[in-house]
Amino acid sequence: MSPDEMLAHESTSQAFLDDIIGKLKTRREKDWYNVDVKTVLDKTPILSHETRENGDSLVFLNSSVMYFSPTTGRMQHFPRNLVHCFVDDYRMSEEKSDIVFRGELFSVTPHEEQLCWILECANESNVPQAQASVAKWMSWLNRK
Questions:
Q1: How far apart are CA 77 and CA 8, in angstroms?
Q2: What dihedral do alpha carbons 131, 99, 115, 62 form, nearest 10°?
């Protein structure tokens, strides 16, 4: 990597770690991200990331995505060509549901190794944020 690429990589890596560390509850989880996950991602440029309150995260790389779970210790890598996106906008349905919008990023892989990253909105005011995430997924899936 060039010096400029290294700086950009360090910036996005640090942004990811800063974002997830604030959501972790135990020292063990924080150490896992700061040592183990950081080591795995050390030389890999991060395009973007998503985090969950439970400490799970999704990291978008150039041609793949990685899922991290401190609860299970899982670090799973999914090539982009095995990842799909489905969207269900229940606002258009005549059937009533507690969910108004659902986006799902998932992999076509063996059961124990599947990626299943779901965003659900029960409130219409949260739909624009979910749509923005889905738009980011679609942009990543369609990168050349």
A1: 22
A2: 0
Q: What pTM was estimated for this model as a whole? A: 0.84
Question: pLDDT for 86-123, tens place per residue?
Answer: 999 999 888 878 999 999 999 987 777 789 999 999 99
| CATH number for 29 | 2.30.29
List CB contacts of 70: < 8 A, sequence separation 6 or more: 24, 28, 29, 32, 33, 55, 56
Contact (CB, 8 A) for 29 and 55? yes
Cα separation of 34 and 97, whole Å? 40
Token reading at 49: 């990331």
Query: Apex CA 115: angle with CA 58 and CA 136, to 5°?
Result: 45
Where does residue 69 rank: exposed (0-12), middle (13-18), buried (19+ CB within 10 A)? middle
Note down the domain range covering 130. Answer: 3-141
Q: Is 55 exposed, middle or buried (0-12, 13-18, 19+ CB in 10 A)?
A: buried
How many folded domains does the chain comprise?
A: 1
